[in-house]
Write a structure and sequence with these properties.
single chain; 468 residues; 7-stranded antiparallel β-sheet; 25% strand; alpha+beta; Glutamine Phosphoribosylpyrophosphate, subunit 1, domain 1
Length: 468
């Protein structure tokens, strides 16, 4: 796999803003969890001229290169900056095979520059592929020669593309299929868009750099060509890609997992570390490993340790247990729960849960979550925790999160929430649940009032993009 990320600055947001420059620098470093064989970028300046730079080195080394520093320091004043970290699945590790790639079609007066995440198959059987060493280079050539829609008739396998086509004036192009991810979000109160292969990574790095992103992180629809207006990235159009009939290939072939060799790391056609955890039965385990990897690459010197769970039998004996349903607690052998007074229920949250969140100084902390289940009888929505939005905290705390619970959620709201991938909620309470000892003991309770805000923001966004 590889990792893609980037920024679009709208026409009124191309001013000095160091946080966005620092965000891109940090992304180059932490994005090496998706690939550390090569690193590169392309940038569109205010004149709509495109520049690229790439090296066969990892992200941490790349951000120290003099030329890379120049581009990174220009992120805030440029229109577009796109970064790529490569995990080599085909072709040797070299500057030539690093991303981005660019090609010009003089006849069509078109130059294309772009990056690719994924592995295409059977591309070497196409007649015009013999001069190319890697699939991604050939793909950009096809985008230049065939155009930014028709080219996809040739692409078989896993892909997520981000590319700039100067014949499509003023837009940045994106497309993916079901085998590769791509997400985007907007910076609060700015005409500015951030995108990334990993929503958790994007949110984590944004929080580190004090960049507030809006309620919802959106996932690109599969097999759809997105054209984002570079002057106003909140506006975009969507076009279905050409149906993949593969008439240009001689014979089909199967795709096998690449073994670790001179081509690079051991990867398959699917993302082992995709935030959706397609390859993992324990989403929390996969996410916590991701956090640990990023934290090791980009440690926070200001972070403070926060240990709220018992880690030995002596501590466990005095652990706090608060349960919303005491009979349920007894059924699972938590006998001493009977003696606990949960206190008043305030907007679906018990006083003991509120006190616990305040004591741990997590009250009001904003988190990003994904809706996974809704119980209509109890009107309770259950979310998977993804990442903290505005709090740089010890990752060991987040490893222990079992789920996020929001009570008093109407069914209609739950339906609206399920249509978007990631939502932002605020922690209002915390309780411990020993039933989840293997999958996480801490349960967060979010403010149900924020659900209404989230739904309103989502409805407003969709209304504004109805034409798209």
């Amino acid at each position: 796999m590889c990792g893609i990320f980037g920024v679009i600055n709208g026409s009124d947001s191309r001013t000095v803003s160091f946080p966005i420059c620092h965000l891109v620098k940090d992304m180059f470093i932490v994005n090496t969890v998706r690939g550390d064989d090569s690193t590169g970028l392309f940038q569109i300046d205010k004149k709509h001229d495109a520049f690229l730079y790439k090296e066969p080195i990892n992200g941490a080394e790349f951000v120290g290169m003099e030329k890379a520093v120049k581009y990174i320091n220009s992120v805030d004043s440029s229109i577009v900056t796109v970064g790529h970290n490569r995990a080599a699945t085909a072709g040797i590790i070299s500057q030539e095979n690093a991303h981005p790639f660019t090609h010009t079609n003089a006849a069509a007066d078109r130059t294309v520059v772009g990056v690719h995440n994924g592995t295409l198959v059977d591309w070497g059987k196409v007649k015009d592929s013999k001069d190319f060493k890697v699939d991604s280079d050939w793909a950009m050539y096809k985008l230049a020669t065939e155009g930014s829609v028709d080219a996809f008739e040739y692409f078989r396998g896993a892909f997520a593309f981000v590319w700039y086509d100067d014949s499509l004036e003023g837009v940045l192009n994106m497309a993916r299929n079901a085998q590769r991810p791509m997400y985007f979000a907007y910076v609060k109160n700015r005409n500015q868009m951030i995108f990334s292969s990993e929503p958790g990574m994007m949110g984590w790095v944004a929080a580190r750099n004090n960049l507030d992103i809006e309620f919802t992180i959106y996932e690109l629809e599969v097999n759809t060509h997105y054209k984002f207006d570079m002057d106003n990235p909140r506006k975009f159009t969507k076009t279905a890609l050409v149906k993949e009939d593969y008439k240009h290939f001689y014979t089909p072939s199967t795709t096998k997992q690449h073994k670790k060799n001179k081509h690079g790391n051991n990867v398959s056609m699917y993302d082992e570390w995709d935030w959706n955890n397609h390859g993992s039965t324990n989403s929390n385990d996969s996410q916590s490993k991701f956090f640990n990897k990023m934290d090791a690459l980009l440690p926070n010197p200001k972070k403070k340790g926060l240990l709220i769970l018992p880690h030995n039998k002596q501590e466990e004996a005095s652990a706090v247990i608060t349960m919303a349903d005491l009979e349920d607690a007894q059924e699972f052998g938590i006998q001493d729960a009977v003696a606990i007074d949960l206190g008043k229920n305030i907007d679906g949250i018990y006083e003991t849960e509120i006190d616990e969140a305040k004591e741990l100084q997590l009250d009001g902390m904003e988190i990003a979550c994904e809706l996974t289940m809704y119980e209509e009888d109890s009107k309770t929505a259950f979310f998977d925790f993804l990442f903290p939005v505005n709090h740089a905290n010890d990752c060991s705390f987040f490893e222990d999160i079992g789920f996020v619970e929001v009570r008093n959620v109407p069914a209609t709201t739950a339906v609206a929430l399920s249509k978007s991938k990631v939502h932002h909620l605020k922690i209002k309470g915390i309780y411990y649940d020993k039933r989840l000892a293997k999958g996480g003991d801490v349960c967060l309770v979010a403010d149900s009032k924020l659900i209404a805000d989230c739904r309103k923001a989502d409805a407003t966004y969709r209304a504004a993009n109805t034409a798209a």
